[in-house]
Structure to design on (269 residues):
């Protein structure tokens, strides 16, 4: 009897891949499907995706983020494809801008010395999907560390971390256009001259204090030194993940409307 096979291809950029893959494999086992997983940093396969799931070679629409095992099983079966993907909880993250900041924000480039600060911010409870469940934390930390060490070994500039009184309070992570293209994010400008923002996150307690803007500003100011001309990001018309309004306020322009999301770019005049 032919056994169906679920294949997950991923780059280890987002630690939420760990619990997501666990849910996918539990769903697959429920259905009696075989599972395999390829970490594209190690496998060197010609797969262009941050995260892609296939059943017998057919792409299945599953995004990064914890999902219900039964919903995933439905997707793997190819039925009930119309249900809503579980999104981040909007209600837990009402945005209330604050007016004043207590102290000066220091922005440091991401380096081997502060890699753990970004990982802590990335895996902590402020993340859009909540905290990564405890049982996945060790693996998620290892995965994110490997990713950051990999990009740091290849590109001098790939992130900045914001500190307030030495406490890490936010970060921005970006990659050159050529790598972004491999992750499935096609750049509109020349990939060689473009930095693509993957993640931007500020600790919830510090939202509205312009820390996100300071991180973006630092990235923009350092563009010539890093030999980039443009910054691109995929921003969203609603929600807190790369909010369109935030990027508009930071002088990004919409360059392509994709429906729920838009491609935006910063282009120095
Ligand atoms: C988006 C985010 C980075 C903004 O950071 P921030 O420091 O609070 O933003 P700023 O204070 O610099 O905001 C600058 C402007 O953008 C606006 N803005 C910021 N977030 C906004 C949002 N979600 N919706 C609408 N406008 C927003 C602000 O109102 C402000 O406008 P103003 O100049 O008129 O006052 C932050 O809300 C965040 O971390 N969101 C969650 C992202 C996430 O979960 N990432 C997951 C890990 S990658």
């Amino acid at each position: 009897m032919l056994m169906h096979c679920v294949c997950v291809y991923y780059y280890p950029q987002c630690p939420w891949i760990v619990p997501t893959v666990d849910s996918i494999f539990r769903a697959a086992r429920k259905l009696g499907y075989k599972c395999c997983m390829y970490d594209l940093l190690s496998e060197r396969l010609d797969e262009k995706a941050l995260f892609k799931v296939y059943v017998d070679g057919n792409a299945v629409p599953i995004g990064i983020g914890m999902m219900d095992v039964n919903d995933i099983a439905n997707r793997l079966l190819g039925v009930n494809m119309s249900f809503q993907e579980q999104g981040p909880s909007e209600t837990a993250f009402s945005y209330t801008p604050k007016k004043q900041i207590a102290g000066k924000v220091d922005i440091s480039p991401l380096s081997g010395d502060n890699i753990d600060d970004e990982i802590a911010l990335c895996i902590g409870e402020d993340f859009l999907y909540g905290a990564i469940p405890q049982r996945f934390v060790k693996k998620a930390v290892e995965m994110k560390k490997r990713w950051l060490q990999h990009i740091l070994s290849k590109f001098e500039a790939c992130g900045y971390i914001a500190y307030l009184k030495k406490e890490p309070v936010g970060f921005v992570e970006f990659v050159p256009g050529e790598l972004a293209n491999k992750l499935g994010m096609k750049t509109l400008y020349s990939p060689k001259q473009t930095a693509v923002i993957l993640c931007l996150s500020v600790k919830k307690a510090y939202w509205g204090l312009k820390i996100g803007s300071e991180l973006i500003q630092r990235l923009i100011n350092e563009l010539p030194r890093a030999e980039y001309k443009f910054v691109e990001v995929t921003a969203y018309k609603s929600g807190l993940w790369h909010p369109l309004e935030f990027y508009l306020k930071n002088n990004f322009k919409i360059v392509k409307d994709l429906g729920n999301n838009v491609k935006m770019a910063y282009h120095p005049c």
